[in-house]
Write a structure and sequence with these properties.
Elements (H helix, E strand, L loop, with lengths): L28 H13 L2 H12 L3 E5 L11 E5 L14 E2 L29 H43 L2 E2 H18 L12 H13 L12 H4 L13 H14 L1 H9 L4 H34 L1 H18 L4 H6 L1 H13 L5 E6 L3 E4 L4 E4 L4 E5 H5 L48 H18 E11 L2 E11 L2
Parallel strand pairs: 2-8
Antiparallel strand pairs: 1-2, 3-5, 4-10, 5-8, 6-7, 9-10
Helix pairs in contact: 1-2, 3-4, 3-14, 4-9, 5-9, 7-9, 9-12, 10-14, 12-14
Bound molecules: protoporphyrin IX containing FE.
Keywords: Heme, Iron, Lyase, Metal-binding
Pfam families: p450
Cofactor: heme
C-alpha cells in the first residue's frame, strides 16, 4: 500500500494537543438542528465559518447531513484547513469504504447490486483490480483524447451558435452535458451513443440516476417550497425503480459495445456483469457527473473575469497553436496562462467539495495551530473549498486570480486538492485519487482552447443550481 509521503506530517511537532472542540447536540435532534442550519438557516459556508469562529479552530466536531432517518450516525470530525485536510489522502491511516457520499450509502440497486470502485477501500482487492483496469484503459486511450474532444466541442459550439441565432440564448449546461456524455461514452465504448439503443437519452437518464442517489445531500432550492417540505428529501431514500428501465438501457448499451474492456476486466478476475456496472458508474457518475459540475464552473469564473482575460487567453492560445501548427499535448503545455486559469477554477470552486474517510486507527492530526486526537472508527469529513481557500496558504483566497499558478506560483499546485489528492501527486491502484486527474485538466483546457480559437468574447447570464452553476450564453463574438 502506498501512503503519500507528502501528506500529513508525523505528529512530532511542538504544536499543543487540543481536544477537538464542537458538539453533536442532543441525540437525534442535534443532527436535525445541524441539518436545518446547514441547508436553510445559514447555508454551507456560513455553517462552517460560524463554527470555526465559535470554537476558534479549523478542526471541529459537527453533524453532517442527511442525518435521521437516512444515516444512523451523522457525527463527523470536520477538517477545514489546508493542512488537516490532507489526512483524507493518507490511505494507510484512513479507510474509504462505502463513504463516497458521506454518512449514508445509496441502495445497491443503483449499481446492479455491486459496490463500484469509488465505494471500495484501498485494502479491498477489487479496488486494486478495477483501478488498475481504469488506469491502463486511460493510458491506452491517450491518443483519442484530443481528436474526440475537438469533435465534441466543435459540435457543441455550433449548436449553441444556432440556438443563439434563433432564440437569442443558449443553455450552456444542457449543451455541455450532451458534449460530455458524447465524449465519455465514445471513449469508453468506441461508439457514439446515437449508434446504440440509448440514442439521445443518455444525459437525462444519468441526470435522474445521479439526482436520486444524491438528493439527501442537496435541496430543491425552490423559494415557494417551505423548508419542512423540502427537508423531506433528507429523511427518506429515493427509490431506484424510478430510473430502472433507463439504467437497464444504459447498461446494455455499454455492455454491447465495450467487449474488449470487459474482456480485460474478466482477465483480471472481475465478473463481466460487475465490470459493466462499474463502467456505467465510471462513465455516468464519475466522469459525466464531474464534468457536469466543472465545465459550467469554469465558464462562470472566466466569464466573471471579463474582456481583459478573454483577450490574454485568446492571444496566448492562438499564438501557441500557430507556432505549433495544431492543438497538441505539447502546445497545451506551453499555454501557461490557460493552465493557471484552469487550476485556479479547480481551486476556488472544487467540483466535488466534500470528502469523507474513517480513521483506521487512533490518529493524531494537525491544523496550522494545534494537534488533535481522532479515535479509530471516527468519520473524518473535509469541506474542500475551505482547504483550497485557506488564507494561510493562498493570498486573497476568495479572489479568482488568473495568473496565480504561473511561474513561481506553480509551487502552490500542491495545495490544489480537487482530485482527492494534491495536484502534484499521481493516481495509482493503491490510492483513491481520481484516475482521470490529467484527463479532466486536459478537457478543461481544451474547452477553453476551442472557445477562444472560435470567439473573441462571449456574454453569459450566471445563476445557481442544486448541483453547481447555471450558465446561459447570450452572445458569441467570432474571432477576428
Ligand atoms: C470533471 C470531472 C471529474 C471530477 C471533478 C472528478 C473528481 C473525482 C474525485 C474528487 C474523486 C474522489 C472521490 C472520493 O473518494 O472522495 C474521484 C474518484 C474517481 N474518479 Fe474522478 N473525477 C472526474 C472525472 C473522472 C473521469 C473522466 C473518470 C474516468 C474516466 C473518473 C473516474 C474516477 C474513479 C474510478 C474514481 C474512484 C477512484 C478510486 O476509487 O480509487 N473521474 N474523481
Amino acid at each position: 500500500m502506498v501512503s503519500s509521503s507528502s501528506n500529513q506530517p508525523e505528529p512530532s511537532s511542538d504544536l499543543a494537543l487540543r481536544e477537538i472542540p464542537g458538539s453533536y447536540g442532543v441525540p437525534f435532534f442535534g443532527a436535525i438542528k445541524d441539518r436545518y442550519d446547514y441547508f436553510y438557516n445559514q447555508g454551507k459556508d456560513e455553517f462552517f465559518r460560524t463554527k470555526i469562529q465559535k470554537y476558534n479552530s479549523t478542526v471541529i466536531r459537527t453533524n453532517m447531513p442527511p442525518g435521521p432517518f437516512i444515516s444512523s450516525n451523522s457525527k463527523v470530525v470536520a477538517v477545514l484547513d489546508s493542512k488537516s485536510f490532507t489526512i483524507l489522502f493518507d490511505n494507510s491511516k484512513v479507510e474509504k469504504k462505502d463513504i463516497l457520499d458521506g454518512t449514508y450509502m445509496p441502495n445497491l440497486n443503483f449499481f446492479g447490486g455491486y459496490r463500484p470502485c469509488a465505494f471500495l477501500d484501498t485494502e479491498e482487492t477489487d479496488h486494486h483490480a478495477l483501478k488498475s483496469l481504469y488506469l491502463s484503459f486511460l493510458a491506452s486511450s491517450h491518443k483519442k483524447f484530443i481528436p474526440y474532444l475537438r469533435t465534441s466541442l466543435a459540435e457543441m459550439f455550433e449548436i449553441m451558435e444556432n440556438e443563439i441565432a434563433s432564440d437569442k440564448t443558449s443553455d450552456f449546461n444542457t449543451n455541455s452535458d450532451n458534449m460530455a456524455f458524447e465524449f465519455v461514452f465514445k471513449l469508453v465504448t468506441g461508439v457514439s451513443p446515437s449508434e446504440t439503443k440509448i440514442k439521445a437519452k443518455g444525459p437525462s437518464t444519468v441526470n435522474t440516476w445521479i439526482a436520486l442517489q444524491l438528493a439527501p445531500l442537496g435541496t430543491a432550492g425552490l423559494k415557494f417550497v417551505p423548508n419542512f417540505i423540502d427537508d423531506i428529501i433528507h429523511t427518506v431514500r429515493l427509490p431506484f425503480f424510478v430510473i430502472k428501465s433507463g439504467y437497464k438501457k444504459l447498461y446494455s448499451a455499454i455492455y454491447d459495445s465495450s467487449a474488449s474492456l470487459l474482456d480485460e476486466a474478466e482477465k483480471s478476475g472481475i465478473k463481466r456483469e460487475e465490470a459493466c456496472h462499474n463502467l456505467v458508474f465510471l462513465a455516468g457518475f464519475n466522469a459525466f457527473g464531474g464534468m457536469k459540475v466543472l465545465f459550467p464552473t469554469i465558464i462562470k469564473w472566466i466569464g466573471s473575469s471579463g474582456e481583459t482575460l478573454y483577450k490574454r487567453l485568446a492571444e496566448e492560445i492562438r499564438s501557441v497553436v500557430k507556432e505549433e501548427g495544431d492543438v497538441t499535448f505539447s502546445a497545451l503545455e506551453k499555454m501557461t496562462l490557460l493552465k493557471s486559469v484552469v487550476y485556479e477554477a479547480l481551486r476556488i470552486e472544487p467540483p466535488v467539495p466534500f470528502q469523507y474517510a474513517k480513521a483506521r486507527e487512533d490518529l493524531v492530526i494537525e491544523s496550522h495551530d494545534s494537534k488533535f486526537e481522532i479515535k479509530k472508527g471516527e468519520t473524518i469529513f473535509g469541506y474542500q473549498p475551505f482547504a483550497t481557500k485557506d488564507p494561510k496558504v493562498f493570498d486573497n483566497p476568495e479572489e479568482f486570480i488568473a495568473d496565480r499558478f504561473v511561474g513561481d506560483g506553480e509551487k502552490l499546485l500542491r495545495y490544489v486538492y480537487w482530485s482527492n489528492a494534491r495536484e502534484t501527486d499521481s493516481p495509482t491502484a493503491d490510492n483513491k485519487q481520481c484516475p482521470a486527474k490529467d484527463l479532466v485538466v486536459l478537457c478543461s483546457r481544451m474547452m477553453l482552447v476551442e472557445l477562444f480559437l472560435r470567439y473573441d468574447t462571449f456574454t453569459a447570464e450566471i445563476g445557481q443550481l442544486a448541483l453547481g452553476t447555471s450558465i446561459k450564453i447570450t452572445s458569441f463574438t467570432k474571432a477576428t
